[in-house]
Amino acid sequence: MGTNIGEISRKGIIPHEDLAFNPFLRISEKSNSINLEKDLALKYLHGDTFSINGAMGFQLITFEKEPLGWIKNIGNRFNNLYPKEWRIRMNVDFASAQSTK
User: Fold this and answer.
1) DSSP percent split of the chain into helix, strand, coil, nearest 5
2) DSSP assignment, residue 37?
3) Mean pLDDT, 10 residues at a time, over the chain (101 residues)?
4) Pick from 85, 83, 61, 62: which is nearest to 71 by CA?
5) Domains, the chain, ranges and CATH?
6) Is 44 exposed, middle or buried, given 0-12, 13-18 or 19+ CB atoms closer than 10 A?
């Protein structure tokens, strides 16, 4: 019962997806978050890499102020912490092209 906060690793605590999605905690309003446009949000959900500006460390990724998941910004790149089994498997370039027609 309850919300998973995170996982303890040798380098610290890795935030869990449940923490981002819990509506009672409203983490997106209280934490460092990066709001993405639609095309970058789809790339994030697909697991692609792209350049992103934000503070170092764990950041909550949002789209239209709705939480999507976590990244760890390590400077020149970021680690996508979105679970692999949840990722979009279709070509996201095709999906974004379809929505603009």
Assistant:
1) 30, 30, 45
2) P
3) 84 87 72 88 93 89 92 91 91 64 54
4) 61
5) 6-99 (3.10.450.720)
6) buried
